[in-house]
Design goal:
The chain has twelve helices and eight strands. The protein is α/β, with parallel strands linked by helices. The protein folds into two domains: 168 residues, Rossmann fold (3-Layer(aba) Sandwich); 203 residues, Dehydroquinate synthase-like, alpha domain (Up-down Bundle). Helix 1 links the parallel strand 2 and strand 3. The longest helix has 23 residues. The protein is globular, with a radius of gyration of 20 Å. The two termini are 40 Å apart. It binds fe (ii) ion (FE2).
Length: 385
């Protein structure tokens, strides 16, 4: 067995109503804080109530869309000036990443590009971030349990990570009741992002026994609940299952990496405005087939096809399912949840050369179970188009 490490948020509170206990996480940190919300600040009302009840003071910042380096830099300066001692983010993955980045840059002033991967110098943070609490309102990115924040750099047309072991949240408060009113389209794309983040660490080259158990548990919960929350947004039991699966997906990816779906969706998200989960969903079945074909053709020394077969069984619920049944389940699910092809999302084929180069260089691609090469990536993009 290979050696492995595992790290996650210092404390996880899970369950309907868990947001009411949020202030306990900062009870020992005196002084004001910062609350980062998403596009719809009213979704953070239960966080405000919890802070108010505890007599805490805070300022607020509303994050619009996926955060950029410039936006979080501006806000981290404001956080420094206002003397914020802690940061809470309540919203989807973008708001949580924004809060996480602000908490890191508030204690690490200077040029943020010093700390950014790919487009910057990738240096380690000099100082510990402000204590950060994540309160997700979608069941998708698992950002409440990861050590990186994805930021857009519009000048470079890429999304890059600010990453540090210190950026794991001090607390992840996962209250499934906060996702009850999420629209069906967001439920679908974020849920398929979580599914991808459970599949890629499970079949990938950096899997370990601890994340394997999270992935198995998460995949079977998503398989039985994603269709239910899509049809009935108020299904509290299915919402809880999705929130738990998304949390597990963050814990898995933070410790076992990702694969080609994220290797392509990351840079493509930087070249377009298409939501991350939608891109992952559109690439999921083509990458499944491309990886399995490459493993059959080029050899499979680590028995990754066995894992694909197990994933197919978890997804379909059929103990006799094979790899092709898994691919069929993914394709049918993606159609049923209304995920368009890349062509319908406005992706142009003339961007594929640039995209292939960026995907090959991405950190996620290193976790893919097999090397696809330029032509392999190009072919799977054609079938996702
Ligand atoms: Fe993702």
């Amino acid at each position: 067995m290979n050696p492995f490490e595992f790290a996650t948020a210092t404390r996880i509170r899970f369950g309907p109503g868990s947001v009411t206990r949020l202030a306990e996480e900062i009870s020992e940190i005196p002084g004001p804080g910062l609350l980062v919300t998403g596009r719809d600040p009213s979704r953070a009302e239960s966080v405000r109530q919890a802070l108010r009840r505890a007599g805490r003071t805070w300022s607020e910042w509303r994050n619009h869309g996926e955060p950029t380096v410039a936006a979080v830099l501006g806000d981290s300066e404001e956080a420094r000036l206002s003397g914020a001692r802690w940061v809470v983010a309540c919203g989807g993955g973008a708001a949580i990443d924004a809060g996480k980045a602000v908490s890191a840059l508030a204690t690490n002033d200077g040029d943020p590009f010093d700390f950014l991967e790919v487009v910057g110098r990738g240096l380690p943070l000099r100082a510990r971030p402000l204590p950060f609490i994540a309160v997700p309102t979608t069941a998708g990115t698992g950002a409440e349990a990861t050590r990186n924040a994805v930021l857009g750099s519009p000048v470079h047309r890429v999304k890059v990570s600010l990453r540090s072991p210190w950026m794991l949240p001090a607390a992840a408060i996962v209250d499934p009741s906060l996702s009850l009113s999420l629209p069906a389209a967001v439920t679908a794309s974020t849920g398929l992002d979580a599914l991808t983040q459970l599949l890629e660490p499970f079949v990938g080259s950096r899997s370990n026994p601890l994340t394997d158990s999270l992935c198995r548990e998460g995949l079977s919960r998503i398989a039985r609940s994603l269709g239910r929350v899509f049809d009935d947004p108020e299904d509290t039991e299915a919402r809880s299952e999705m929130a738990l699966a998304a949390l597990f997906s963050g814990m898995a990816l933070a410790n076992s990496g990702l694969g080609a779906v994220h290797g392509i969706a990351g840079p493509l998200g930087g070249m377009s405005d298409i939501p991350h989960g939608t891109l992952c969903a559109a690439l999921l079945a083509p990458v499944w087939m491309a990886n399995c074909e490459a493993l059959i053709r080029d050899g499979d020394p680590d028995n990754r096809l066995f894992r694909y077969r197990e994933a197919a069984r978890l997804l379909t619920g059929n103990p006799g399912a094979d790899i092709s049944d898994g691919e069929r389940w993914l394709t049918e699910t993606i159609i049923r949840l209304g995920i368009p092809k890349l062509r319908e999302l406005g992706v142009h084929k003339d961007s594929f050369e640039e995209l292939v180069s960026k995907a090959e260089a991405s950190s996620s691609m290193k976790g893919n179970p097999v090397r696809l090469g330029r032509s392999g990536i190009r072919d799977l993009l054609d079938s996702a188009w």
